[in-house]
Design brief:
Oligomer: single chain
Largest sheet: 7 strands, mixed
Helix content: 25-40%
Number of domains: 2
Shape: globular
Strand content: 15-25%
Structural class: alpha/beta
CATH class of the largest domain: Alpha Beta
CATH architecture of the largest domain: Alpha-Beta Complex
Length: 386
């Protein structure tokens, strides 16, 4: 079958970018050969989303050690990439059929973390931070392919009559925003979203749907700022870009946010960008007794400026990883299926631009033009249905 892959033998990490479209073996279910196939399901992806993690792999900025370690484990050189998916069930293992009720023709999305179910975190209900989790498209073959084999327990049934397929492929990243926005109650509160990339844009519409009184965005890219306004942000502020500022917060930005929040600061700040200065911008934006939700990911160390203020002002920092399994997914489905507000329509019209430039047919995928699209749009989908 055809798949988009990273091949470490052909493309050494430090000397390459992008993915290769190449032939790989078709996965199959054979319970006689591998007893674990009884619990697995073979799926035909119809739409697959290209996410920030995939960008990290494309531009060789992230996940080298994880991918190489998994390839060493498997004795291979090629990894099929991709973990955001909407697809059709093709074949079902006997246990997956009995336990989960899947059958050929069912429509599904998938949780990207394959959790062990037996570690301490899994057994106390914190499977989203499983200590032995594997990640589709990174440690295991992903969904940028004509077929993918997955454990039945990571699949999520989707009603294709209620959620359009292009949006259904985004349940996983949309769920990130849902987890961020449900970490603390947002109803009646003022919220600042620091960084309106893909998940930040999702967070704008989720925060509004969950009852936030006022939503403020912070975003330097004007195209993204315009999207945030269309999705429901009351104000979007462009931060000053000053490399000399280092990890320090932007006092002008903090002043603007305080002015827009009755002089006290916002109740909740969502840090979605992962840069050190953005972390301190979030802390400086929040009121005494407020909450800072940390989702933006950065490797290595970070410096919290004026740490004493975090203690003395009673500010609470929360870290968010992935989605709570399956609590976040239930909320995600309810939000996307709702017509008031019409969230999936907003996602399709604003973030996906009604498919114009954002939906790429897999059959004529070209690496050069694809890179231009992922540089130009916050979210791009591969259409594997044609």
């Amino acid at each position: 079958m055809i798949a988009l892959c990273y091949d470490r033998k052909t493309d050494p990490w430090e000397q390459s970018t992008g993915l290769r479209k190449q032939q790989v073996p078709v996965p199959s279910l054979d319970e006689g050969k591998d007893y674990r196939d009884a619990e697995r399901v073979l799926v035909r992806p119809l739409f697959s989303g290209f996410c920030g993690s995939d960008r990290g792999i494309w531009f060789r900025r992230a996940f080298k050690d994880v991918i190489y370690g998994a390839l060493d484990r498997d004795g291979r050189d090629v990894r099929v990439i991709g973990h955001e998916m909407f697809g059709e069930v093709v074949e079902v293992g006997s246990a997956a059929r009995r336990v989960y009720g899947y059958s050929a023709g069912d429509l599904v999305s998938t949780e990207s973390h394959i959790v062990c179910g037996t570690c301490y975190q899994c057994r106390v209900g914190d499977g989203h931070v499983c200590q032995d989790s594997r990640i589709i498209g990174i440690t295991d073959d992903g969904c940028f392919a004509e077929r993918i084999k997955l454990p039945g327990n990571v699949l999520w049934a989707v009603d294709g009559k209620k959620i359009r397929p292009e949006v259904a492929a985004l349940c996983e990243p949309f769920g990130n925003a849902v987890h961020v926005c449900t970490k603390v109650p947002l109803r009646g509160k003022t919220v600042a979203i620091i960084g309106c990339g893909t998940i930040g844009l999702f967070a704008v519409v989720v925060a509004r749907a969950l009852g936030a009184r006022r939503v403020l965005g912070v975003e330097p890219v004007e195209a993204h700022a315009q999207m945030a306004r269309r999705l429901g942000a009351d104000e979007v502020i462009a931060p000053r870009i000053d490399p000399g500022r280092g990890f320090h917060h932007d006092p002008t930005l903090a002043g603007q946010i305080h002015e827009l929040s009755e002089g006290v600061g916002v109740d909740v700040a969502l840090e979605m960008s992962g840069t050190n200065d953005a972390l301190n911008n979030a802390i400086s934006a929040v009121r005494r007794g407020g909450d800072v939700i940390l989702f933006g990911l950065k490797s290595g160390d970070a410096v919290i400026e004026n740490f004493d203020r975090v203690i003395m002002d009673g500010i609470t920092l929360h870290a968010v990883m992935g989605r709570r399994i399956w609590e976040t997914w239930h909320i995600t489905r309810n939000l996307l299926e709702s017509s008031t507000p019409p969230i999936q329509d907003l996602v399709w019209e604003v973030i996906l631009n009604r498919g114009d430039g954002t939906v790429v047919p897999f059959s004529n995928w070209d690496p050069k033009s694809f890179e231009e699209r992922i540089r130009s749009h916050p979210k791009v989908l591969l259409d594997l249905s044609r």
